[in-house]
Each structure stands twice: as C-alpha cells, then as structure tokens.
Automatic annotation (TrEMBL):
GO terms for molecular function: peptidyl-tRNA hydrolase activity. One of its GO terms (cellular component) is cytosol. This is peptidyl-tRNA hydrolase. It catalyses: an N-acyl-L-alpha-aminoacyl-tRNA + H2O = an N-acyl-L-amino acid + a tRNA + H(+). It comes from the Eukaryota.
Amino acid sequence: MTTGKIAAHHATLACYKALMKTNPKLVQHWERTGQAKIALRGSSEDELLELEAIAKSLNLCARSILDAGRTQIAAGSRTVLGIGPAPVELINQVTGHLKLL
C-alpha cells in the first residue's frame, strides 16, 4: 500500500466526528494547536485490532477503517487506525513501539 493511499484514509475524520459528539473542547484544542497527525507502520490487521483495543481501554478515541476496495486493497480490509487526539503520553502508551511510516 502506498503512503498516499494510507494518508487518504478516513481515520482522522472518523475520530474527529466521534469526538465532536463526545468531547468538542478536546477537538477545539487540537484545532488550535496545529492538528498534529503522525503516521506509524503496523504489521497486520490483527495488530490494528489489538492497538484499537488498548487505546479504547485507556479511554482514547480509536477508529479503524475498513477499505472500500475501489483501488489497491481488497474490500473489507482493515487498513488504518486513528487514535486521538489525546495527550502524547497516552498515545505513546499504545503506539510508542511502532516505527514512523
């Protein structure tokens, strides 16, 4: 999967929409402070599911995206996970072992 394909996914938007309903002040803070997004490399769909579960256990917003299958990836494949926005220290508890994309 190309970096562009990953970057085009809806994980950020999914987290944004979810948090606008539950914690709009956090979203506003994120918007005012540069809207940081970092892409990290995972190894499998199973790892994405595990990371999503860990993030949710820490009360972080986490949304995985299933690909529509219109381009490079088979329909229904879990291809990306969005986590946050949240304090860096919390996100690092989930993703600190991953390498930059």
